[in-house]
Specification:
Elements lengths: L12 H10 L4 E3 L3 E3 L3 E3 L5 E6 L8 E6 L7 E4 L12 E5 L3 E5 L5 E4 L9 E5 L5 E5 L10 E2 L7 E2 L4 E5 L4 E3 L1 E6 L2 E12 L5 E6 L2 E6 L19 E7 L3 E8 L6 E5 L5 E6 L6 E7 L14 E3 L7 E3 L4 E3 L2 H5 L7 E3 L9 E9 L6 E4 L4 H10 L3 E8 L4 E7 L5 E3 L5 E7 L1 H26 L1 H29 L19 H7 L8 E4 L4 E6 L5 E6 L7 H14 L8 E7 L2 E7 L6 H5 L10 H21 L3 E3 L8 E3 L5 E3 L6 E3 L5 E3 L2 E5 L5 H6 L1 E3 H17 L15 H10 L17 H14 L10 H9 L18 H9 L2 E4 L4 E5 L5
Parallel strand pairs: 25-33
Antiparallel strand pairs: 1-10, 2-7, 3-4, 4-5, 5-6, 7-8, 8-9, 10-11, 11-12, 13-22, 14-15, 14-21, 16-17, 17-18, 18-19, 20-21, 22-23, 23-24, 25-26, 27-28, 29-33, 29-34, 30-32, 31-32, 31-34, 35-36, 36-37, 37-39, 38-39, 40-43, 41-42, 44-46, 45-48, 47-48
Helix pairs in contact: 9-11, 9-14, 11-13
Bound molecules: 2-acetamido-2-deoxy-beta-D-glucopyranose (NAG) (9 copies).
Keywords: ATP-binding, Cell membrane, Disulfide bond, Glycoprotein, Kinase, Lectin, Membrane, Nucleotide-binding, Receptor, Serine/threonine-protein kinase, Signal, Transferase, Transmembrane, Transmembrane helix
Pfam families: B_lectin, PAN_2, PK_Tyr_Ser-Thr, S_locus_glycop
Organism: Erythranthe guttata
Length: 825
C-alpha cells in the first residue's frame, strides 16, 4: 500500500523521521516512482496521495485525500481531465522538475506546469496537504517550483489562497466536479474576482450566481458571517502584482475543508468523529437573498420580508410595477426624483450588504469626505462608502446602477447613495424642526411646565377641597350620599358603606392583589355591577398624592384601552378609587404563567399590543391633557372578559401642555426592567420614556418572558439585548414564545419585534412616537419600511444594576424603585 524509495532513505533523514512513524514516505525524487496502489503520506499523517477511482467509475486518477478519516474524502485531483483507464499508471518527477503521470506505454497523461529548471528536483507532500516540487538542496522551505495549492480542484484547504497573480495571469479558484464519478471541471466555480474591488463570486459557467463582499478589511461581509468561524484566520493581500484571499487554520489538529459541490453550493465542513462524520459548518448560498441581483437595481432583499424584494426605501419606486407584483423583481427600482448631477446630495443607507462592486473605483487612503467629493465629480458615480471599516479609511465609489443589495441586520454596512437634492430637503426640514423643537422644549419645560404644574396643583386642590368639604358637610350632617346625587360632578363619590357592602367588609377572599399604593378588592354593587376598589393603605405616604393624581387624570380620560374609573370614596381616613372590574386581571398573570400563557395565542397577543399602543397614543397625543404614564408594565395592563387590554394605574402619570415633550424630576419612580435609561439615570421623562416601556412590554408579550430577570445562558444580555442580538443575526423569530403557533403570522410577529426594538433604543430621539408605532403595527404592506433599530438602552442586566447603584436607591416589596436624584441643573 505504501512505498519507500530505496536510495534516498539516507538522504532524506528529516522527513523520514515522520515517515517511519506512519511507515510511508512523503517525498519522491527523479529515481523513484509511485505506482498504482502505492501512496505518499504527509508528515503528521493527515493527507495521503495516490491513485483512486471516484464513485462508481473505473477510471484511475492521482489524487489526495484525508488519510485518517474513515470516509474517503478526496481533496485534490491531479489529472482531473485526463483519467487513466487502467492501473498501470505511475507518478514520478522528471528532470528538470516536472511532475508527470505516465501510462503503460510511458506516454505522459498529465504533467505539472513547472517552468523553472533545477538540478535535484523532488516532489513532496507537505503536512498542509500541499504537494510541492522543489529543489532538494533549497534552503528556503517556501520556495517551490510548483505547488498543488495553486491548482485547487473543488476543495479549499486551510493555507490555500484564492485569487490572481497578475504577473503570470494565473487564477486560483475552485471548480466543482462534473459528477460524483467524474472529477473533471464542472459547471460551478468559486472565484475571488478582482474587477473593480475584490469580491467572492460563485459562478455557473460565466454567470454570477452569488456574491460576497467587497472585502471590508476584516472579511467579505455577507451571510454566513465568517467572523464566527473560529478555526480560520482570514487575510487579504492586494497590490499591483496580485490579489489573494487566504485562510489559515488556527488549530492544525482541526480537520476541515471548504468545497464547491455539484449543484453550486459551497460548504465549510468539519470532521467531528467516526459516528457523526463530516458536518456542514455553513453553506453558501444560505437563503433566497443570496441569489445574485434577485431584486434588481436599487432593490433590497429581505429574508424575513414578504415579498423578499423591496425598493431601498420610499425614495425609490419599482421600475415596472406590473413585474413587481408578479414577483419578477429583476427590473428593480428607480429614484422617484431624477438626479440632476450638479446639485445632488448623498443619503445614508445602513444595515445592508454593499452592492456589486465590479463597476467601482477605490483609493486606500482617502477620507470619507474626500470620497464624497470624488463621487460628486462624476455624474455616473451613484454611491460611496468607507473602504476599510477596520482602519476607518479608504474610499470605494460605485458607478452606474447599484445591484445585489440585501438588508443585513448583522454585519450590515453603510453606504451613501446619490439622490436628488429634493429628497434631502424633507429630511433637513425634519431635522431643523427637531432642533427648533428642542430649543422650544428647553424653554417650555422651564416656563410653561411650571405654569401648568402650578395651575394643575391649584385645580387639584380646588376640587379636592370642594369634595372634601362637600363630603365633610354631608358626613357631619350624618347623611350618606350615593351615586345619583353626584350627577353634576365629574365623577360620582361612593359612600364608604356602599363599598364596605360591595366588598364584604374588604374581606380577604375579595382581595385581588396589591397595587402601587395599597390593596385592590373586588366588589359587587347592588345592581350586580362588578367593581374593583383600590384602597389606599395607611402606611403609604406617597399614596395619597398618587391617588389624587390618578383621580384627576383618569376622570378626564375616556378610551376603550384605558381602565374606566367609576368613582371614588374618601371618608374618614379611607381613600379609595372605584373602577370597572376586569375579570381577567392583569396581563402579567397570563403572560408569565406557563399554563395560562397558552391561552394567549398570537392573535390575542397582537390585539393586546395594538390595544396598548392605541391607549398610549390617546394618552400622549389625543387626550385633553397630554399624559405621560411613567409606569407602564405588564401588571398595569388589565384584561377585560374578551382579553382587550386596558391601561391602568395612573398614580405616577404626569400631564403636559401641548408643546412640551420632556421634563426632569428629582424623584424617579418606576419599575425595574421597564424604565428608560434617560429616566432612570437622569430623571428625564418624556413621551419617549413611555415608548421605551411600551417596547419592553411588546418584547415581553412576544417572548412570554420578563425583561427583568431574563438571563440567557450564552450571554449576559437581558431580554432587550437578546432580542436585539437575534435581530442582528436575522433570527428574530427565535425571540417569540416557543409555545406560540406563529406559522401563519410571522410577518406580524416580526413587525412587532421590530417595533419593540425601535421603541427601546438607547437614544430617546431614535424611538418612534406612538402614532408611528400604531401605524407601523397596523401597516402590513409597509413592513419593510420599518427602520433598523439601533442598540437598545439597558440591554445587559449588569448595565441596569451598576447604573442604578450609582444613585441612592430604595426598593420596596412591589418591585418599585425610588431613586432620589441630584437637583436638576
Ligand atoms: C487517527 O484517528 C484516530 C481516531 O480517530 C486518532 O486516535 C489518531 O490520533 C489519528 N492519527 C493521526 C495521525 O491523526
Ligand atoms: C454507485 O452505483 C450504485 C448503484 O448504481 C448507486 O447506488 C450508488 O449511489 C453509486 N455511487 C456513487 C458514489 O455514485
Ligand atoms: C517505461 O520507462 C521505464 C523506465 O524508464 C522502462 O523501464 C520501461 O521499459 C518503459 N516502458 C515502455 C513500455 O516503454
Ligand atoms: C498513453 O498516453 C499516450 C499519450 O497520452 C497515448 O498516446 C497512449 O495511447 C497511451 N497508452 C495507453 C496504453 O493508454
Ligand atoms: C500549462 O501552462 C500552459 C501555458 O503556460 C497552459 O496552456 C496549460 O494549460 C497549462 N497546463 C496545465 C495542466 O495547467
Ligand atoms: C450540494 O449541497 C446542497 C446543500 O447541502 C445539497 O442540498 C445538494 O444536494 C448538494 N448537491 C449534490 C449534487 O450533492
Ligand atoms: C426622469 O427621467 C426619465 C428619463 O430620463 C424621464 O422619463 C422621467 O420623466 C423623469 N422623471 C421626472 C419626474 O422628471
Ligand atoms: C488616493 O488618494 C490620495 C489622496 O487623495 C492620493 O494622494 C493618492 O495618490 C490616491 N491614490 C491612488 C492610487 O489613486
Ligand atoms: C465617470 O466614471 C466613468 C466610469 O468610471 C468613466 O467612464 C467616465 O469617464 C467618468 N466621467 C468623468 C467625467 O470623469
Amino acid at each position: 500500500m505504501s512505498r519507500s524509495g530505496g536510495s534516498s532513505w539516507f538522504l532524506l533523514i528529516l522527513p523520514l523521521i515522520f515517515s517511519t512513524i506512519c511507515g510511508a514516505t512523503d517525498t519522491i525524487n527523479t529515481d523513484e516512482i509511485i505506482r498504482d496502489g502505492e501512496t505518499l503520506v504527509s508528515p503528521g499523517g493527515k493527507f495521503e496521495l495516490g491513485f483512486f477511482s471516484p464513485g462508481n467509475s473505473s477510471n484511475r486518477y492521482v489524487g489526495m485525500w484525508f488519510k485518517n478519516i474513515t470516509e474517503m474524502t478526496v481533496v485534490w485531483v491531479a489529472n482531473r481531465e485526463s483519467p487513466l483507464t487502467d492501473t498501470s499508471g505511475v507518478l514520478t518527477v522528471t528532470p528538470p522538475g516536472i511532475l508527470v503521470i505516465l501510462n503503460a506505454t510511458n506516454g505522459t497523461v498529465w504533467s505539472s506546469n513547472t517552468s523553472i529548471a533545477v538540478k535535484n528536483p523532488v516532489a513532496q507532500l507537505l503536512g498542509s496537504g500541499n504537494l510541492v516540487i522543489r529543489d532538494e538542496k533549497e534552503k528556503d522551505p517556501d520556495n517551490f517550483l510548483w505547488q498543488s495549492f495553486d491548482y485547487p480542484t473543488d476543495t479549499f484547504l486551510p493555507g490555500m489562497s484564492l485569487g490572481w497573480n497578475f504577473v503570470t495571469g494565473r487564477e486560483n479558484y475552485l471548480s466543482s466536479w462534473k459528477s460524483n464519478d467524474n472529477p473533471a471541471t464542472g459547471e460551478f466555480s468559486f472565484h475571488l474576482d478582482p474587477t473593480g474591488y475584490p469580491q467572492l463570486l460563485i459562478k455557473r459557467g460565466s454567470a454570477v450566481q452569488n456574491r460576497f463582499g467587497p472585502w471590508n478589511g476584516i472579511r467579505f461581509p455577507g451571510p454566513p458571517n465568517p467572523r464566527d468561524d473560529p478555526t480560520y484566520k482570514l487575510s487579504f493581500e492586494m497590490d499591483d502584482k496580485k490579489v489573494y484571499f487566504k485562510s489559515d487554520i488556527i488549530d492544525v489538529s482541526f480537520v476541515s475543508r471548504y468545497t464547491m459541490n455539484l449543484s453550486g453550493v459551497s460548504q465549510r465542513w468539519t470532521w467531528v468523529d467516526r459516528t457523526r462524520g463530516w458536518v456542514i459548518y455553513f453553506s453558501i448560498p444560505s437563503d433566497i437573498c443570496d441569489n445574485y441581483k434577485l431584486c434588481g437595481a436599487y432593490g433590497s432583499c429581505n429574508v424575513g420580508g414578504s415579498p423578499s424584494c423591496e425598493c431601498l426605501d420610499h425614495r425609490f419606486v419599482p421600475k415596472e410595477p406590473e413585474g413587481w407584483v408578479r414577483a419578477d423583481w429583476s427590473n428593480g427600482c428607480v429614484r422617484r426624483a431624477n438626479l440632476s448631477c450638479q446639485d445632488d446630495v448623498f443619503l445614508k443607507y445602513s444595515g445592508i450588504k454593499l452592492p456589486d462592486a465590479r463597476n467601482s473605483w477605490h483609493n486606500n487612503t482617502m477620507t470619507l469626505d474626500e470620497c464624497r467629493l470624488e463621487c460628486l465629480k462624476n455624474c455616473s458615480c451613484m454611491a460611496y462608502t468607507q473602504l476599510d471599516t477596520r482602519r476607518e479609511s479608504g474610499c470605494l465609489i460605485w458607478y452606474e446602477e447599484l445591484v445585489d443589495i440585501r438588508s443585513m441586520s448583522a454585519d450590515g454596512l453603510v453606504m451613501y447613495v446619490r439622490m436628488a437634492s429634493s429628497e434631502a430637503e424633507v429630511k433637513n426640514a425634519a431635522e431643523s424642526k427637531g432642533k427648533k423643537r428642542e430649543i422650544l422644549i428647553a424653554s417650555l419645560v422651564s416656563v410653561v411646565g411650571i405654569v401648568v404644574l402650578v395651575l394643575l396643583s391649584l385645580y387639584v386642590c380646588y376640587i379636592w377641597k370642594r369634595k372634601r368639604n362637600d363630603l365633610k358637610t354631608r358626613k357631619d350632617q350624618g347623611t350618606s350620599f350615593d351615586v345619583d346625587h353626584e350627577k353634576h360632578s365629574d365623577l360620582p363619590f361612593f359612600d364608604l358603606s356602599v363599598i364596605l357592602k360591595a366588598t364584604d367588609q374588604f374581606s380577604s377572599s375579595n382581595k385581588l392583589g396589591e397595587g402601587g399604593f395599597g390593596p385592590v378588592y373586588k366588589g359587587m354593587l347592588k345592581g350586580g355591577q362588578e367593581i374593583a376598589v383600590k384602597r389606599l393603605s395607611k402606611e403609604s405616604s406617597q399614596g395619597l398624592d398618587e391617588l389624587k393624581n390618578e383621580f384627576i387624570f383618569i376622570a378626564k380620560l375616556q378610551h376603550r384601552n384605558l381602565v374606566k374609573l367609576l368613582g371614588c370614596c374618601i371618608q374618614g381616613d379611607e381613600s379609595m378609587l372605584v373602577y370597572e372590574y376586569m375579570p381577567n386581571k392583569s396581563l402579567d398573570v397570563f403572560l408569565f404563567d406557563q399554563t395560562k400563557s397558552m391561552l394567549l395565542d398570537w392573535q390575542k397577543r397582537f390585539n393586546i399590543i395594538n390595544g396598548i399602543a392605541r391607549g398610549l397614543l390617546y394618552l400622549h397625543e389625543d387626550s385633553r391633557l397630554r399624559i405621560i404614564h411613567r409606569d407602564l408594565k405588564a401588571s398595569n395592563i388589565l384584561l377585560d372578559s374578551e382579553m382587550n387590554p386596558k391601561i391602568s394605574d395612573f398614580g405616577l402619570a404626569r400631564s403636559f401642555g401641548g408643546n412640551e415633550t420632556e421634563a426632569q424630576t428629582r424623584r424617579v419612580v418606576g419599575t425595574y426592567g421597564y424604565m428608560s435609561p434617560e429616566y432612570a439615570v437622569d430623571g428625564l421623562f418624556s413621551v419617549k420614556s413611555d415608548v421605551f416601556s411600551f417596547g419592553v412590554l411588546v418584547l415581553e408579550i412576544v417572548s412570554g418572558k420578563k425583561n427583568r430577570g431574563f438571563t440567557h445562558s450564552e450571554h449576559g444580555l437581558n431580554l432587550l439585548g437578546h432580542a436585539w442580538q437575534l435581530e442582528k443575526e436575522g433570527r428574530s423569530l427565535e425571540v417569540a414564545d416557543p409555545t406560540l403557533d406563529i406559522d401563519f403570522q410571522t410577518a406580524e410577529v416580526l413587525r412587532s419585534i421590530q417595533v419593540g426594538l425601535l421603541c427601546v433604543q438607547q437614544n430617546p430621539e431614535d424611538r418612534p412616537n406612538m402614532s408611528s408605532v400604531v401605524f407601523m403595527l397596523r401597516n402590513e404592506a409597509e413592513s419593510g419600511e420599518i427602520p433598523q433599530a439601533r442598540q437598545p438602552g439597558f440591554f445587559t442586566q449588569r448595565d441596569v444594576i451598576t447604573r442604578q447603584n450609582s444613585n441612592s436607591m430604595k426598593a420596596n416589596s412591589t418591585n418599585e424603585i425610588t431613586i432620589t436624584m441630584p437637583e436638576p441643573r
